[in-house]
User: Fold this.
Amino acid sequence: MGQLLFVTTESVSFTCNDPGARVDLTVARISGESRERVKEALASGLITVNGRAVKASAKLRTGDLVEGTFPPLPLTEAIPEQLPITVVYTDEHLMVVDKAAGMVVHPAPGHDRGTLVNALLGLGAFTTEAGELRPGIVHRIDKDTSGLLVVTRTVQAREGLVEQFRIHSIRREYVAVALGVLTPPEGTWETLHGRNPSNRLKFSSQVRTGKTAVTHYRTVETFGTLACLLRVTLSTGRTHQVRVHCTDHGHPLLGDPLYSRRGFDPAALALGTTLGRQALHAALLGFTHPVTGEYLEFTSDLPPDMATAIEGLRDLTHG
Assistant:
């Protein structure tokens, strides 16, 4: 093995006197870490041999210095945090939250802290399922989409709302600003929906196989030919659904950093840059209470950043 300098669950350092041994097998044996975690560290350049990144299959020589760190261990539970959030309704079974843009719904790689789940745990929102990464989460909205979502607090509520989402009986309406003007001014898009084969961060309706996505839209206001204000209703809830449907029909959302396209008015695009996120807000949420049977409906006003962008479009239109 050579001289062991140090080894922890975060890092490792040793010199080799076992020439010809594979670096990944040697590091795994010395550290006790899994080969997958070691391979990930080597592929990312986190662990080096004599200061240089190498392949997992590289063979060691006597005296080689192997050192570096391991990638973070995957989260197993969310941590309670004291974070500001807006709760618009709560009872013993569920909560409705008006999420701010910029907040991730639940912990995921790259977002260990600062999520809505961390904030809800900090409020003591959950009496069951504590310790999971997604306690109470039955649907999501994107990090940079603002607006309403419901979170469950009991198993009975969770089962009831999951079923309502499954049969698409929950009412969800969004306010969106799309670049250009949609023709016709209202309609329905029903497409397949799946990963974009050329960019795994994106989704697309231009796929051969996928789930069905259904979006109903209605133009509320136009800003000359620059953009239009939409009211969008979802019959399905696919990831990035509104953003994908608008983009694939030639009208990406104002400010969308992932699905943006060239060819639109520079002044309108500048407003989107200032907005710094897609112009999409979950403005209405309605559902039947899974325990009491009462129909509940909530609305959320446009956040200031979107309202400012819309006023900017009006100014551009009317000079």
Remarks:
- DSSP finds seven helices and 14 strands in the chain.
- Residues 4-69 form a domain with the Structural Genomics Hypothetical 15.5 Kd Protein In mrcA-pckA Intergenic Region; Chain A fold (CATH 3.10.290.10).
- The two ends are 75 Å apart (CA to CA).
- The CA atoms of residues 44 and 262 lie 33 Å apart.
